[in-house]
Each structure stands twice: as C-alpha cells, then as structure tokens.
C-alpha cells in the first residue's frame, strides 16, 4: 500500500484541484461561470507545469549540461579520454601533469555516467539556480569546483596508501555540492510510504546520486564525499565564500556572446485551443457544413464583453451538433444543457439574442429566447416572431 501525504511546501497546487473547491460548487452555478473557473485553473496548472519543465531563469544550468554533454561526446569521438584521467601515480607524482586536476572535470568517461549526471543536473540545478539567481549560481559553481579540486588533491596525497589513487572523470564534486544545496533550500512537495519506508518527491533524485557515488569505488565515493563537504563549506560561509560574485565584465561577456549559443530559455507556449478527439479524427475529412459555423473551443480566459460561446462568424447559427471537449460535455450534463439539447431545445448564443433584440425592440427577451430555442436557426426565429406579430 502506498500512502501519500501532501504538505504546503513546494510548488503551488491550483485551487481547482482541491477538494474544497468542488465542495463549494452548487447546482445553481451557471455553466459559463463553471467553464471560466475550470479554464482559469487549468491554465494556471499548465503554466506551472511548463515553467517547471523548462530552463526558464536557469541559463547556467543549461550551459553546464550542454558543455558536459558536448565535451563528453567529443572526447569519445577523438579518443582522447586518457588526457582527462586523474591519477596520483604516475600523472601527478612522476609526470607532474597538474593540469589534469582541472581537465578531469570537463567530461565523463562513458554514456551512463553522462546520462545520470544530466538527469541530476536538470532536476536539481534548475531549482537551485532559480533560488540563487544566475549570477550567484555561477559563482557558487566556480567556488565549488575550485574547492573540490583542492580537496581531491589533498585526498590523493593523504589516502593513496589505502587505495585511493584516482578519481573518475566528470564534475562529480560540483554535482554533489549542488545536491547538498538542493537538500537544504528546496523543500519536498509531498511524502509517501512504500512498504512502510518513508519517501518524498526528492527520493528518486537521491537514488540517482547514490548510483553515481557507488559506480566506481573508492574514487567515486570519495568524489561524492568531497562534493558534499564543499557544499557544506560554501553554505557555512567560511572565508566569506557566499559573498563572492563573478565580475560584471564576465557577466556581460557571457550574456552577450555565450547566452545566445545555448538557445532559448522560454518555456513552450501552451495553446489555448482545445480540439476534441473527434475533431482531430475528422480534420482530414472536413464536414459538409460551412467552417464558419464551427464553434471555437478555447481554454483562454473570456473577456468581459464575451461570456457566451465564441463563434468564427457571430451572425451564423450555432452548431449544436458539433463535438465538444470532455469538460464541456461534463458541464453540460451538470447544468442540464445536454438534456435540453436532447429534448430538441436549442441553446441560443448571446450574439443571436442581441441581434434579435435589436431587430424587435418591443418584444420581451424571454419571448426572443423561446423563439430561438424552438428554431433551427436565426432566420427561422425571425419568421416565427414576424408571424406572431401579424
């Protein structure tokens, strides 16, 4: 059994998804008002989801992912992985190749490490960068990488006698330092239990990080511990590291020349048009009726002067036989509109009512509505009203 318990921390939950919102819906609520509330809640939920599934306000994270991916692919294609390995013996002690301390952070040795690290970076780095801001996040990445490099060199010197002679390729220290910040500043959205084990929405990310830590012991385990230690040192504000920021010159240069290279950061646009399933199936075979009579079904918030169903041609008759969305069909059943349609009573749009009211100013509104309900189109309703006055 799986038990899920929701907490207030984390991304906002749209109001239309809560139980209280449904408990307040009364039978007297009109279909237009219900459509508006559902559409507004759906759009808020969609925007929140698209914002979460994008690199908006996370340019540095996207840059790190692009650089790690491209460098790992190029290193494998040109067969130069041996230049990115880091070993105390013989690289540092015998050949004095200290440049390997910095180069081994640039690429991963295989595709599995690259894939797992990209997943962790996407799920962790985007949220941490949105909390820090891009400039502070870039400064944090630089400080964590420098701290990790120094600590890795010291670990090789101190523990090479117990078997720690090398570190795996890739920015593992930066990733685990980032995971430490993620665990401290990003709260969990929900908790649940599987077979009595308490978990939350961040548990899968920690499992991926655990896989990275135990992939190549003892070097991978040491890199994970060094990354966590670097994150702790940065967060403890030792030597005023949290106050460090990249120079404005570097920021301007990156914004002008490097930012366009990583592509757009805007989330994908969520369309307001909701096409029903049957409309998609019949798109290849258009109906015999005029396309001007097709009702445009959207999830956009209606304007104050147009609360009625919008038509491509306001003066054309409404196509009540057309298919609607699942939500609209459910609202029609809830408000009784479907029963009126099955009984042969047409639901006239407000545009037709306004048009006939202007043509027959002396006729009451309820009479005009009744004539439209019992007529297949507006022309028949006009004939009915003219015959009743003669």
UniProtKB/TrEMBL annotation:
<dbReference type="GO" id="GO:0043130">
    <property type="term" value="F:ubiquitin binding"/>
</dbReference>
<dbReference type="GO" id="GO:0004252">
    <property type="term" value="F:serine-type endopeptidase activity"/>
</dbReference>
<feature type="domain" description="CUE">
    <location>
        <begin position="348"/>
        <end position="390"/>
    </location>
</feature>
<keyword id="KW-0472">Membrane</keyword>
<dbReference type="InterPro" id="IPR022764">
    <property type="entry name" value="Peptidase_S54_rhomboid_dom"/>
</dbReference>
<feature type="transmembrane region" description="Helical">
    <location>
        <begin position="137"/>
        <end position="159"/>
    </location>
</feature>
<protein>
    <submittedName>
        <fullName>DSC E3 ubiquitin ligase complex subunit 2</fullName>
    </submittedName>
</protein>
<keyword id="KW-0812">Transmembrane</keyword>
<keyword id="KW-1133">Transmembrane helix</keyword>
<dbReference type="GO" id="GO:0016020">
    <property type="term" value="C:membrane"/>
</dbReference>
<feature type="compositionally biased region" description="Polar residues">
    <location>
        <begin position="290"/>
        <end position="306"/>
    </location>
</feature>
<dbReference type="InterPro" id="IPR003892">
    <property type="entry name" value="CUE"/>
</dbReference>
<dbReference type="Pfam" id="PF02845">
    <property type="entry name" value="CUE"/>
</dbReference>
<dbReference type="InterPro" id="IPR035952">
    <property type="entry name" value="Rhomboid-like_sf"/>
</dbReference>
<feature type="region of interest" description="Disordered">
    <location>
        <begin position="270"/>
        <end position="321"/>
    </location>
</feature>
<dbReference type="Pfam" id="PF01694">
    <property type="entry name" value="Rhomboid"/>
</dbReference>
<dbReference type="GO" id="GO:0016874">
    <property type="term" value="F:ligase activity"/>
</dbReference>
